[in-house]
What does this fold into?
Amino acid sequence: EAGVTQFPSHSVIEKGQTVTLRCDPISGHDNLYWYRRVMGKEIKFLLHFVKESKQDESGMPNNRFLAERTGGTYSTLKVQPAELEDSGVYFCASSPRTSASTDTQYFGPGTRLTVL
Amino acid sequence: GQQVMQIPQYQHVQEGEDFTTYCNSSTTLSNIQWYKQRPGGHPVFLIQLVKSGEVKKQKRLTFQFGEAKKNSSLHITATQTTDVGTYFCAGPGGNTGKLIFGQGTTLQVKP
It folds into this structure.
């Protein structure tokens, strides 16, 4: 069984540019989460999809961040325009069930975003 | 809002020494999960504790969940260089599945 995959693994962009991160969850997993880890700090929740619906987007920093999960399969996270403080590692995680508070979350390898 | 605090932030040990990281939540947790992230890697699930006072072991790793379900610890006996990485505890932030992570404890092991 393939794990969670993310693309790209690294992205270096200039302030003001746009970047789109992609996550492919484990096949059949309804729950998809985005998290971010800024250098040396904790992993912070951004948002949660159940299938194609946004269940919780309370962690999204501001309206420069837009996440989608069309068709309930892969998800994209777009940052437009990027700011310096957006730098960090963006992790995607998935879990199987719709009532997910006790589910194991399987993390992808992350996308390291650097905004110059 | 809900917070999960973890100490210490860093720990350097000699190979063979023991290591412990502590996790405290500002709220009672229905469960607590532990993850390990190797340098350059991604968080990998280690274990989940659900019951008050629960203790679980995985080889040299011992995980405890406090009686009040607000704190937890991970203890590694006789560390090895393969134990190097950052250990995170995480609790559910509500019942939707999102996780609230502690800041992590980064373990360095000197051979």
